[in-house]
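An instance noted here:
***
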Amino acid sequence: MEIWVLIPAYNEEKTVGEVVTKVLKKVNNVLVVDDGSTDNTADMARKAGATLVSHTQNQGKGQAKQTGFDWLLKKNFDVVITMDADGQHSPEDLPKFLKLWSRTKADIIIGNRMRDTRDMPYIRYLTNRFMSLTDSLIVGQRFEDTQCDYRLISRGVLEKIRIATARFEADVEFLFRAAQYGFRIISMPVRTIYIPGRQSKIRPLRDTFRYIRLLRRFTR
């Protein structure tokens, strides 16, 4: 089985190198898409052993992932696992994704952080619950954590779906499109590491507006 881990990164010089190093202890191939960073993200990723693709300007997480998917589709692979560059996703869960996929052959496996929310900021907990419920109602399929970007995606899915949105709403758009195609989507509990003092790149007003606009597009 040929596996790639895809990590979109924007100004993550402090964490991306360590993330890549830990991931390479579990799998052989890591692709980092540097989304126009203004710091040393690209150098740190390359030095840690990742394959690097770079945007000259910041285009958003969604487009960084699509750039990575397009690059990977020119290669031979069975599954790709997407992870964040900030250290919130534990590489220790990578073998669990692969074991579950080998057993189920699901098209998409979404990491589920909602089984243990003791360390999750309360506003994040409420947001995740609300959005996951809304998303589930729209597609007619239960999702426990649509906001989690720790996911395993099979090649066949990426051959059918392209992300049209640019930023954080792209994760939900991807699931909506996958559900429309009838792909099998399941969940798996994952650990999420919340780093004290670290600021989220999500902008509540801006990203909520984009999410609502996405919902309108898929409910017309």
